[in-house]
Amino acid sequence: MGAGNEEKLGVVKISDEVIAVCVLNSTLKTKGVYGLSGGLTDSLSKNLLGKDPLYKGIKINQSDEGVAIDISIIVDYGIKIPDVAWNVQENVKREVEDIIEITVNAVNIHVAGVHFNEQ
Q: Which residues neighbour 47 within 8 Å (Cβ) at sequence distance 6 or greater?
C-alpha cells in the first residue's frame, strides 16, 4: 500500500481527561505559574459528590472543529501576567496539538490569584 491508500477503520474519541493531562503538564511547566485554581464549580462538585474534581482549574470543550480550553491559574507575585498568560497559551496549544493531534481553537486563561513568597 502506498502513502495515499490509508483506510479509516473508525473514529478515535479522546476523553477530556486525556486532554486535561496535557493541559495540566504544559501549564505547570510554564515559568511564573504557581498552580491551578479550582473555583466555584470545583467547590460545588466536591461538596455535592464528596470528591475532588480530577483536574481542578481546567475545563475542556470539544467540538467537531477542535477543542477550546479554559484554565484558571495562580501566578507568582512580581511577574508580568500578560507574558505568563501568553506563554501558557502557546505551551498548551503546542503540547495538545503535538501529542493528541487535535486542533486547539482557543486557550482562555483566567488569572484567579497571585501567590506571594513568604520569606
A: none
